[in-house]
Amino acid sequence: MIKLIECPRDAMQGMPDFIDTAIKAAYINQLLEIGFDTVDFGSFVSPKAIPQMRDTEEVLSLLDLHRSKSKLLAIVANLRGAEDAFHFPEIDYLGFPLSVSETFQQRNTNASIAQALETVETIQNLCQTKGKEMVVYLSMGFGNPYGDPYSPELVAEFVQKLDDLEIKIISLSDTVGLADNKLIKELFKVQFEAFPEIEFGAHLHSRPESISEKVEAALEGGCRRFDGALKGFGGCPMAKDELVGNMDTEIMIDTLESKGYQLDLNKRELIEAVKLANYVFQSPL
């Protein structure tokens, strides 16, 4: 079974102009009508670091969750953010960005890898007592632009540490679009074989012309969980100066369906969401 995770949070967070809270909520409510497995809707992080996400709590209060089968995921970068997220029973998943790059970990969460791992352990322990599940995003999982050490073996070392903490969902993240198809296929294949009890996801960033082949490479490696954003908007503002867009959800859907996968999505609501995305991300705000 394919799981599609739609990421309006990732699409919005790097936008230079603040998107009105009501517009954010209207857009996410439209996404909730489509039937995605999960919607990554917001983050509990410092408003100084990510000003766009300063209204996540307000947005959550405006979401109509009664008719939607989608689960909600919120990103946290430290214990304080996790404690804020724990107040909301509507949130199913807490996502944490752990990096195999020391430079990016510092840039993204203002902490070392060692400190971040300690935070992961603390949040995971709390998730287990509070009925939520942790999703760890292993960022710079396919290489980094900083010259920090990288190898598939290093990724496996991180996965082993997370497995020891009983993390059950790990999303391998190509934060700056460096991954080639061979690496994508092999990295997923090796991880699935070594850790069959873990659900591995693909959070890839890509130029539009490379999306289909990256999806196919991940599929061949065994991946069945994919993050994306309508129209491919977004990217990580902490990674480098130029944003590399998210995987375009429409292209991913077309690719997956061409391979015979049944996604059980409401296409009429998807069309309406694409129209709204064009307004949210391209019109003057």
Automatic annotation (TrEMBL):
<dbReference type="GO" id="GO:0006552">
    <property type="term" value="P:L-leucine catabolic process"/>
</dbReference>
<comment type="similarity">
    <text>Belongs to the HMG-CoA lyase family.</text>
</comment>
<dbReference type="InterPro" id="IPR013785">
    <property type="entry name" value="Aldolase_TIM"/>
</dbReference>
<keyword id="KW-0479">Metal-binding</keyword>
<feature type="domain" description="Pyruvate carboxyltransferase">
    <location>
        <begin position="1"/>
        <end position="271"/>
    </location>
</feature>
<protein>
    <submittedName>
        <fullName>Hydroxymethylglutaryl-CoA lyase</fullName>
    </submittedName>
</protein>
<dbReference type="GO" id="GO:0046951">
    <property type="term" value="P:ketone body biosynthetic process"/>
</dbReference>
<dbReference type="InterPro" id="IPR043594">
    <property type="entry name" value="HMGL"/>
</dbReference>
<dbReference type="InterPro" id="IPR000891">
    <property type="entry name" value="PYR_CT"/>
</dbReference>
<keyword id="KW-0456">Lyase</keyword>
<dbReference type="Pfam" id="PF00682">
    <property type="entry name" value="HMGL-like"/>
</dbReference>
<dbReference type="GO" id="GO:0004419">
    <property type="term" value="F:hydroxymethylglutaryl-CoA lyase activity"/>
</dbReference>
<dbReference type="GO" id="GO:0046872">
    <property type="term" value="F:metal ion binding"/>
</dbReference>
